[in-house]
Specification:
Blueprint lengths: L2 H29 L11 H23 L2 H8 L1 H13 L6 H19 L1 E2 L8 H24 L3 H30 L7 H22 L6 H22 L3 E2 L2 H29 L10 H4 L7 E5 L9 E5 L7
Antiparallel strand pairs: 1-2, 3-4
Length: about 325
């Protein structure tokens, strides 16, 4: 088997491992709503962690045998594999809108990464890495805080998934710097980079776990799958001196691919919002507060003296009921 074929095979198996891990994470999130970030007591969660770890190892090995422009787009197949696997193994079927969104996001991401040329890439220095790490902590922290105050579960999950994607993407950037430093003569910044990788990987895992609570599988997974490499590519273009192939034409095509990927995420989000249950009626709604005979609710005055109006809700026989 050639090195290129081995790289493709490893990338496909890695995507399957990531997809299986995401499915297990979503199921754990549905079972442990009281522990959205780290359900350590749940054995299935540890199985998901192991699958994600296996996917990461296979992805790194695939990069050793094949070019980045091939391996990274194949990673976008995670969301495409996850939907049929979820339908087959756990009976979670995705609608037509979710499928269209997933395919659009994957195609757009693959096009974007295929146009990235990293032949002349370099490794950022210590100051650039420090700024990158600090900026990443700020962005992830901001998305986390905004998600904490958002009322809609789907929007909250997308924000958490976006934060996880940023953490994973920058972890990939630091992984690349460590790979470059490993063969250099002055690997003095290797240890801090390894610490940053470990911290961001753990944060990404915990945030991605929380993103599945109340949002299903497709939308959070697609968000992580797209944001992760897009952030890594953006940093590569700014700090690694990478560029798009074909100059101006490649830049235009890359922007178009980004629009396609964003459209896929929008479809996934709207599909999930449409399938979410309607919120409870507001207490200020007069129709919501009106007693219904068919519901067996009786409204009467409370026999005890009070200085203000007070009512008592009693279940039982009411006018027209038994």
């Amino acid at each position: 088997m050639s090195a290129l074929a081995l790289s493709v095979l490893l990338s496909l198996v890695s995507a399957v491992a990531y997809a299986a891990g995401a499915i297990l994470q979503e199921r754990v999130a549905a079972d442990t709503a009281d522990r959205p970030y780290a359900p350590l007591h749940h054995g299935v969660w540890w199985a998901a962690v192991a699958l994600n770890g296996l996917g990461a190892v296979l992805h790194v090995v695939a990069l050793a045998y094949g070019p980045l422009s091939l391996v990274q787009p194949l990673g976008a197949l995670t969301i495409v594999f996850a939907l049929p696997m979820a339908a087959l193994f756990v009976g979670r079927r995705a609608g037509h809108t979710a499928w269209r969104g997933a395919i659009m996001a994957s195609v757009g991401l693959a096009g974007l990464l295929a146009l990235t040329d990293g032949a002349d890439s370099r490794s950022p220095d210590g100051d650039e890495r420090l700024m990158l790490a600090a900026g990443t902590v700020g962005v992830v922290g901001l998305l986390f805080l905004v998600a904490r105050v958002v009322g809609r579960p789907v929007v909250r999950s997308m924000l958490l998934a976006g934060a996880a994607g940023v953490a994973f993407g920058i972890a990939s950037v630091f992984t690349k710097t460590v790979a470059v430093d490993w063969t250099s003569e002055t690997p003095t910044v290797r240890a801090p980079s390894l610490v940053v990788i470990a911290v961001l990987a753990v944060c990404g895992l915990l945030l991605s776990q929380a993103s599945y609570r109340g949002a299903g599988l497709a939308a959070p997974l697609a968000t992580v799958t797209v944001v992760n490499p897009v952030v890594a590519a953006a940093v590569g273009l700014t700090l690694f001196d990478e560029r798009f192939s074909y100059d101006v034409l490649g830049t235009v095509l890359a922007l178009g691919s980004g629009v396609v990927a964003a459209g896929g995420l929008i479809l996934l989000t709207t599909e999930r919002l449409a399938s979410s249950p309607s919120p409870s009626p507001s207490p200020s709604d007069p129709d919501a507060a009106r007693p219904q005979v068919g519901e067996g609710v009786d409204v009467g005055s409370v026999p005890r003296p009070r200085t203000h109006l007070e009512v008592e809700m009693r279940s039982g026989a009411v006018a027209g009921g038994s």
